[in-house]
Amino acid sequence: MGKKFISVRTVVAVGIGAALVFVLMRFVAIPSGVPNTNLNLGIAILTLFAAIFGPIAGLLIGFIGHTLTDLTFGFGVWWSWVIADAVYGLLIGLFWKTYKIDEGKFTVIRGVYFNLIQIIVNAVAWLGIAPVLDILIHKEPADKAFLQGLVAGGLNAGVVLILGTLLAFGYSATRVQPGSLKAE
Question: How many domains does the chain have?
Answer without folding.
Answer: 1
